[in-house]
Amino acid sequence: MPRHARSLDGESTPNAAAGLLLRNCRIFDGVKAALTHGDILVRQSEIVEVSPQELDVPHVRLIDAGGRFVMPGLIDAHFHAYATSRSVREIDATSPTLRAHRARPLLESALQRGFTSVRDAAGADAGLARAVDEGLIEGPRIFFGGKALTQTGGHGDMRPGDDSCCCKSLGLTQIVDGADAVRLAAREELRRGAHQIKIFVSGGVVSPTDPIWMDQFSDGEIRAAVEEAATRRAYVLAHAYTSRSIRRAVGLGVRSIEHANLIDLETAKFVAERGAFVDPTLVTYDAMHGSNEGLLPQSLAKLQEVESAGLQAVAYCREAGVRLGFGTDLLGDLHRHQSHEFVLRAKVQDPLDVLRSATSINAELVQRPGRLGTLAAGAVADILIVDGNPLDDISVLERSAESLLLIMKDGHIVKDELSGVLSGR
Fold it and tell me: What residue spans of 82-146 are helical by DSSP H?
């Protein structure tokens, strides 16, 4: 029998814990540098109380954290559940049913790494999100956007240059040209329940026909996507590498910039002034560089260009005060490198800031501040107990199989390797 979780805005399910007390915790709340010692009381799928005093609550399950590091569940803001192969062409040729089945192990593995939420950045739909909510897949909750929107010949158009196919709907993306077409496509995705709309406004690495520096979508097309998202209180995220494309997108109302490897300091300051987010994805370039199987020859040079600039881009954004999210953008079997992003980011950021990116800042990014990415009364009970202190050695999160002793999502324990568990007080 699958164990049912509770969707973020839905009703509690019968199998959610009626009462659970985590005792003797060193608590990182997702925001503050100072750790507090105390207890955490969970009922159903929510945190009821975080107390510096030992709580005496009858008839709850008691788990002693043994003074270990306790933190919110992680959020990956650039995940691809349907990117089940390194080859986007292969993904495009895969039937939707098979693609969904192949997504299951990617999601389940992400949860076992401590990622209790993911924002899917192209492809995932309401059906996959519902399969997770109903417990058919024991994975992170999904903030989905449906198929990402690309212009003909844009980064999301993965057809080779000599392909005469005129199909407009691909595995992860759909090709739309003109403001009216963008508006209609955005409305359709939002009608299906999309949490956000993804567009491409510059060239990319794995696409075969566009240079990195290429501007994509007209101002009118970008504005149409932004306007339609706003009608549903949603937002637009944009794939963008260059300073020109980033400044243009943010100036037109795009809220979240993905990658941004070629950003300069002045553009980073502009992004910060506008209150937009930048979501770096350093690990995807590192992983592809280490094993470039499936990459087209024309993609290798583009990969080297953006990879070499990634750390500097994060440093510029940090200096400018940009709110930096945490994403990974991995394909196929490279998803196994998901937690290596922590180590890469720590080369130019303090571990505290990296943890904030993967918790409270990403919670703001997905429009769930105070509900996700924090340990506080009223928050969803997504909780990790870590053997080790990521603030001292962030690489412990990369060794998740050994270091994550307890993983809780929606108040439901999906992994428990702690000894001394008492129940039935």
Answer: 88-93, 96-112, 126-133
